[in-house]
Amino acid sequence: SPSQHLFPGAGTHGSSIPARCSSARRFPSDGFLLLALLLYAPVGLCLLVLRLFIGVHVFLVSCALPDSQLRRFIVRVMCSVLGLFVRQNDPRLRDGSVRVYIANHVTHFDHNVISLLTSCNTPALNGAPGFICWSRGFLELGAAGSRAELVDSLRVYSSHEGNAPLLLFPEEAATNGRAGLLRFSSWPFSIMDLVQPVALQVQRPLITVSVADSSWIAELLWTFFVPFTVYQVRWMPSVPRRAEEQSEDFALRVQELLAVELGVVSTRLTAADRAEHMKRLRPRVPSRVAGAGPSAAEDVRVTAMAQRVKEVLPHVPLEVISTDLAQTNCVDTTIANLLEGRVSFFPESKEATTDLPAPSTSQPATKHFAKSSVERHLSLQERKRALYDYARRRFAEKQAAARAGGSP
Fold first, then answer.
1. Would you say residue 218 has pLDDT above 60?
2. Contact at 8 Å (CB) between 278 and 192?
3. Is 233 exposed, middle or buried (0-12, 13-18, 19+ CB in 10 A)?
4. Closest-CA residue to 75 (of 44, 105, 119, 122)
5. CB under 8 Å to 211, separation ≥6 — which residues?
6. Exposed end of the chain (fewer CB within 10 Å): N or C?
7. Which residues contact 275 (CB under 8 A, 6 or more apart)?
8. Of 108, 328, 102, residue with least CA distance to 196
């Protein structure tokens, strides 16, 4: 299965994330390559210092010149001095009518590289707007709201012909692009009915291209350290939405096309699965019970909330629940995310799901797979609604029992 190839050492819970897909190690394990890296280190340090000064000039030139083909050519030539080489296949494949580009995510600078080839903007999804956000080349949308508000803002942006096309990364986490694609989020496919996939591959000698949980500053310094980094951009034909096709199906279809183009597998593993595995790989530091700081108190609170969700959804791994709670900080929201499929997971055991209700009690069970995507969507919504109602009812009963037990 893809998870076995991508997730070496995966247990029965499927909680491991692929070392080949997003490496946790930067340096090579091969003794010869490690020796070559040590011998190259003095040269790399000299290049790092020199390229830092040149990088400042590249930044100033990109800020001074208006967005045009001339600026992209000048900055692209200057970036080659920094060791960044950008190649593309036939640029005539780029569709001028497309307002949304969809690309796989490899490094922190994918959007900067593709902007050297064509005018495009990538919205800042993480972090507050400010100088850092602007200097890194992101499109500032103001304070981050709900996902629906984000999609509405991007629709309004794309409706203006004078604005540059959007460049979006539905994987929502960087991988090395050599083993598999993470599951595409559906929201980028809710903006426009026509998208153009962009296949991106990155190569560099001596060290790993993509290291999980590494900051963009660290990646920038390592990019200046290595002799060169080659970005290969392949434009693919634009893909329209089919009649009555849901955004989830549209995202899956584009993901499959990109996976075939890159020669990798298309997985159903999400960025949350990746984050969970990387958390497990980090060394565990025992915390002190007495005198613990606010972080320990926060961990206790999240653990208590996770246990409440676990009582309602016993088949969900506790690690998955805790990861989502750290983001939502709400028991109800986490339950909804798990039931509605926003967070992927592997059930802990078959026995844990025996007490869940049947997907639908008002209709006879279907013995065939619905041919229509609309019918499949309605059936899925019915199952989600039944599970969600059951979970809410069970959660309310446990809350009432707890209050009754605490009353005099």
1. yes
2. no
3. buried
4. 119
5. 22, 23, 24, 25, 26, 219
6. C
7. 173, 323
8. 102
- Asked if 144 and 125 count as a contact pair (C-beta separation under 8 A), the reply is yes
Comparison of pLDDT for 195 and 399, the residue scoring more: 195
Cβ–Cβ under 8 Å, residues 353 and 315: yes
Q: What is the pLDDT of residue 127?
A: 58
Q: With bands split at pLDDT 50, 70 and 90, how would you rate the model's confidence at 128?
A: low
Distance CA 45, CA 221 (A): 10
Residue closest to 118 by CA, chosen among 77, 68, 154: 68
Torsions phi, psi of 341, nearest 5? 80, 10
Which amino acid, residue 379? Answer: S
Mean pLDDT of the chain: 77
State pTM to two decimals: 0.65
Q: What is the pLDDT of residue 19?
A: 46
d(CA 393, CA 388): 8
What is the reported pLDDT for 349? 53
- Lowest-confidence segment of 21-25, 73-77, 119-123, 241-245 by average pLDDT: 21-25
Instruction: Give the C-alpha separation, 401 to 408, whole Å.
Output: 13
State how far the alpha carbon of 156 is from the alpha carbons of 82, 145, 151, 162, 362, in Å.
37, 15, 9, 12, 41
Q: Specify the pLDDT at position 196.
A: 94
- Cα angle, residue 203 at apex, residues 197 and 207 outer, rounded to 5°: 135
